[in-house]
Amino acid sequence: MIRGVFFGCLYAGVIAVPVYPPRRNQRMTRLQAIAVDAQPQFALTTTPIIEFIEQSFAKEPELAVLRCLATNDIADNLADDWQSLNIKPDTLAFLQYTSGSTGTPKGVMVSHKNLLHNSEFIKSAFELTPDSISVSWLPSFHDMGLLGGIIQPLYTKIKVKA
Hints:
The chain is 40% helix and 12% strand. By secondary structure, it is of the alpha+beta class. The longest helix is centred in the last third of the chain and has 14 residues, at 112-125.
């Protein structure tokens, strides 16, 4: 699901900020710090956890301002209205935040140029081809999960089997 949400953000010109969803009985300090820094307007999630997220966010002023949207409820026929984009290399693709395990999470701005450069470097270093097989167990909100599990197979044109 996050694959579609991430690319939907790129298509909409919205800066994605991949973060893990909150868990029960977990402090919200990391998410609060990211919300204060990034100033997001929306939290994109799925129907099974939207109610929990809305209830959790309502208790935290920094998160209560977010509008929660279930992305699995978006109509498929909206793809018929697709239009080509004018994305430049220096256009910001997403913000990647550190875990915050040693302090306040720090955000890094990742441009499309960064993504293409890193993808080419990884493709070359690992000698990837469209016939390569890619397996990832990393969550896609993690930088290695997003880059290695979603972006790299697309960049290398590796066939995806669902």
